[in-house]
Design goal:
By secondary structure, the chain is an alpha+beta fold. The chain has five helices and two strands; from the N terminus they run ααββααα. Strands 1-2 form a two-stranded antiparallel ribbon. α3 crosses α5.
């Protein structure tokens, strides 16, 4: 529904979620916020690259990518 509305109305949709499946299914751009600051702004591929390079891009699901990013960026 969200993707359909975005496509039909050519409008930006801002969705806040911790559900990685929603992010993978809907998002083209992700802004990762932690400790009140923007930590990363980019595509899902950008997130995977930031989490651990090519290996993360090829093999990890988004939950693992986010866990690696949290550890790397010291958010948790």
């Amino acid at each position: 529904f969200i993707k359909k509305m975005n496509r039909e109305h050519k409008t930006t949709v801002i969705l806040t979620t911790h559900d990685m499946q929603d992010i993978e299914a809907i998002a083209e751009r992700v802004i990762l916020i932690g400790k009140g600051q923007i930590l990363l702004d980019g595509s899902l591929q950008d997130l995977r690259t930031a989490a651990g390079g090519q290996e993360a891009q090829d093999s990890l699901n988004l939950d693992h990518v986010m866990a690696a990013l949290y550890k790397k960026l010291d958010i948790m």
